[in-house]
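Structure first, sequence second, as always.
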């Protein structure tokens, strides 16, 4: 049986710093990569992810799906042979609480356009 291919990957954060590079098996899922990012997230950075659902991984302009493997997510066009793959890490902003949409006096915020057609 052939040895599994190891792929070197580093993760670029929004401020330009990197996590890695580290080598991963080609059958590693994007979801497990996200778990590693959450666990290795620098503690001094604000707005860190709390779960893998707070992260998006982008490789060669494509948002990667959690259930896909690293081999399925590769883009041979953008890779340099023998080099590390750099994936962009995007942290989703925290979702607004439904109760925060209410004003203090109990009225709901109006959303949308208030256009008038004459």
């Amino acid at each position: 049986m052939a040895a599994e291919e190891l792929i070197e990957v580093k993760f670029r954060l929004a401020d330009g710093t990197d996590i890695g590079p580290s080598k991963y098996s080609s059958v590693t899922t994007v979801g497990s990569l996200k778990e590693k990012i959450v666990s290795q997230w620098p503690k001094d950075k604000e707005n860190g992810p709390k779960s893998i659902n707070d992260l998006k991984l982008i490789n060669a302009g494509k948002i990667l799906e959690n259930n896909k493997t690293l081999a399925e997510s590769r883009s041979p066009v953008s890779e340099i042979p023998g080099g590390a793959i750099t994936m962009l890490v995007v942290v989703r902003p925290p979702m607004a609480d439904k109760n925060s949409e209410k004003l203090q006096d109990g009225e709901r915020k109006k959303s949308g356009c208030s256009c008038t057609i004459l």
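Margin note: The helical segments are 30-40, 70-73.
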